[in-house]
Backbone:
């Protein structure tokens, strides 16, 4: 199923909040705000953003030229203890070379109502932290003091950046937002593409204002993009126009987590800006992100990207030895993939470009995603394969909605063959060709060829990942169950299983499995193909259970699927606004043989059933047959699309409801 863009629907706006934007001011917390026990429109809310106002101004600095100043002030109401996390705030900023950003918090206070009077507690220095994330990023953090149920917290922060980057602004959060306003102030020299996403949208108003720059020193006229101005203007003043755009949102509801949503931020109401062009007087315009081809060309030309693909001297002898005697592309791909996986370990950092550089990462045997997968691409090319990098946005990073350089945060490799692209990622020890880490399965990526052309690549798997279960068990006259089960998993199901047992002691794993499966007792446990990742992963064990049936009035009530039955419907909402993202299509198959006890007969047996969804979305089949004291079941639950659109949600919900109802039906055994 191909998805071209995020679904967009209109949402009925809630009634306007009583206060106006002009009445919001830090330090002016009211008794009414402190007395409020629950949010008036969402009684389940643990907290609410009473107001949040931001301004992103691109202003001229006499030393640094144009800089971006982002000022944000926020007031939050805490209703419940679950909302205490909102007392912890952080701002991530760039701390690498090639430019500076600085973050400072101020006016941070907690307000409480004590004996009918407003009590203010100011943030002290011990509640202010600065942390290093990596060589490029740091974060400024605050922890608000004296927070209780009923508190109102306020804070302000300022980001001064030498980059002309306007940060994304969210109008929604996991709690209700009573009022949110964001304004941008952009000089005529800069052109931005702005995009809104989500299901509800703020009001937008734009206006133009006249501005001027007074140069304090004529030598400064050559800074900040005015290199040609010195010969054009006789005075020390430059006049220009500025566009102010204000986005206003009132009474936006909380973003509610739903089952199988890859990233809730994909559907949060927000506005994003991407610098597309710079045009100073008497200078040629400089284009940035205008379409995907120009975006990827810009990325490919980075010193830490394209040139790294051309470096081969550090690995040539090793690769020659690896592929010696191998003829088919598949053999070469697998040999090189396994070599990189075993030679260079992922350090946990994403990134589509190199951190250490491929040569140093190879020598030190560690690197980020760019180091590893650009190295992999270069080796594949050296072996004679048509290999190219594919830019990806991970699930946690969100969907790349429109052309911009920050849309991606990851890179994989693709080998073009007669049968299509083979996608590869050497950062995960359990990844094999066309089985990528789950974090990468995020709709589509962008393949870049040597000539600078690019094309969209579908990242969503189309092949079914299977779980096949064979189970045989016996029920005795007291309702106790003993038997044996064998589960075979392929592709993404196998990767998930191998990841779940990696580094876990067998005793701890079995204890968890026993508790999960209604406190059964497991024995004769074994695994097959645990490390042979091209083969299905197989798990086999014997089990006993005293809690797998009910004995009432001499009758035995038995769920034939035992602990494999689906009992909870994840799709409970009346209306689904977001697509259902399973990650990959799958098939669960069960072949179950049941031996009923001597002296008992079947009184009630579930009837066979078959459920099919439209457009071949999925099927469920339940068949059961009896032969003497033996019951034989064959059950299939199959979903054929990795992503299900919101328009099909009702059908999917009904399907799961009917499937769970059938799997919950019990066999009734009576004495004879």
Residues:
């Amino acid at each position: 199923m191909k998805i071209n863009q995020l679904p967009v629907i209109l949402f009925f706006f809630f009634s306007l909040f009583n206060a106006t934007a002009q009445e919001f001011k830090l330090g002016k917390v009211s008794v009414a705000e402190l007395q409020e026990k629950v949010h008036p429109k969402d009684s389940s809310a643990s907290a609410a953003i009473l107001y949040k106002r931001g301004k992103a101004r691109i202003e001229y600095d006499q030393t640094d030229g144009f800089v971006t100043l982002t000022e944000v002030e926020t007031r939050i109401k805490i209703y419940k203890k679950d909302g205490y996390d909102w007392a912890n705030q952080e701002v991530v900023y760039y701390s690498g070379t090639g430019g500076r950003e600085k973050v400072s918090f101020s006016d941070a206070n907690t307000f409480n109502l004590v004996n009918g009077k407003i009590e203010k507690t100011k943030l002290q220095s011990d509640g202010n932290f600065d942390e290093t994330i990596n060589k490029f990023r740091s974060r400024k953090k605050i922890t608000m003091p004296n927070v209780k149920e009923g508190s109102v917290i306020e804070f302000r922060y300022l980001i001064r950046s030498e980059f002309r980057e306007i940060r994304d602004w969210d109008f929604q959060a996991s709690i209700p937002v009573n009022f949110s306003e964001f304004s941008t102030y952009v000089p005529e020299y800069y052109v931005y593409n702005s995009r809104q996403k989500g299901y509800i949208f703020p009001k937008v108003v734009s206006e133009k204002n006249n501005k001027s720059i007074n140069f304090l020193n004529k030598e400064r006229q050559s800074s900040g993009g005015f290199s040609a101005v010195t010969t054009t203007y006789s005075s020390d003043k430059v006049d220009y126009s500025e566009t102010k755009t204000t986005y206003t949102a009132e009474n936006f509801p909380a973003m509610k987590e739903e089952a199988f949503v890859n990233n809730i931020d994909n559907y949060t109401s927000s506005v994003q800006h991407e610098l597309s062009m710079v045009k100073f007087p008497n200078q040629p315009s400089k284009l940035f992100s205008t379409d995907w081809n120009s975006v990827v060309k810009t990325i490919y030309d980075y010193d830490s990207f394209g040139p790294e693909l051309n470096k081969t001297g550090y690995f040539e002898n090793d690769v020659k030895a690896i592929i010696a005697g191998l003829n088919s592309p598949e053999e070469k791909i697998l040999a090189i993939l396994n070599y990189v996986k075993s030679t260079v370990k992922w350090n946990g950092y994403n990134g589509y470009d190199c951190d250490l550089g491929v040569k140093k990462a190879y020598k030190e045997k560690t690197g980020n995603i760019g180091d590893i997968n650009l190295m992999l691409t270069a080796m594949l090319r050296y072996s004679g394969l048509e290999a190219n990098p594919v830019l990806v946005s991970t699930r946690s990073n969100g969907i790349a909605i429109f052309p911009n350089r920050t849309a991606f945060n990851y890179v994989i490799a693709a080998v073009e063959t007669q049968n299509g692209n083979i996608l590869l990622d050497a950062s995960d020890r359990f990844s094999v060709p066309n089985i990528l880490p789950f974090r990468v399965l995020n709709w589509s990526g962008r393949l870049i060829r040597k000539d600078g052309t690019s094309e969209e690549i579908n990242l969503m798997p189309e092949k079914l990942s299977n779980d096949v279960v064979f189970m045989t068990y016996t029920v005795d006259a007291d309702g106790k169950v003993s038997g044996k089960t064998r589960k075979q998993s392929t592709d993404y199901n196998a990767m998930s299983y191998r990841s779940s047992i990696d580094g876990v002691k067998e005793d701890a794993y079995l204890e968890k499995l026993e508790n999960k499966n209604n406190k059964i007792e497991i024995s004769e446990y074994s695994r097959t193909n645990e490390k042979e990742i091209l083969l299905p992963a197989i798990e086999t064990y014997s089990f006993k259970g005293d809690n797998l049936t009910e004995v009432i009035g001499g009758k035995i009530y038995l769920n034939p699927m035992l602990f494999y039955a689906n009992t909870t419907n994840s799709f409970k909402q009346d209306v689904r606004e977001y697509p259902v993202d399973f990650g990959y299509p799958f098939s669960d198959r069960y072949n179950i043989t049941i031996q009923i006890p001597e002296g008992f007969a079947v009184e009630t047996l579930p009837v066979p059933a078959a459920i099919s969804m439209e457009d071949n979305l999925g099927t469920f089949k339940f068949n059961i047959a009896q032969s003497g004291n033996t019951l034989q079941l064959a059950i299939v639950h199959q979903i054929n699309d990795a992503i299900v659109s919101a328009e099909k949600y009702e059908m999917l919900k009904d399907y799961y409801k009917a499937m769970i109802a059938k799997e919950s039906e019990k066999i009734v055994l009576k004495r004879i």
Summary: The CA atoms of residues 95 and 137 lie 5 Å apart. The two ends are 54 Å apart (CA to CA). Residues 1-22, 228-234 have pLDDT under 50 and may be disordered. The first strand starts at residue 47 and ends at 61.
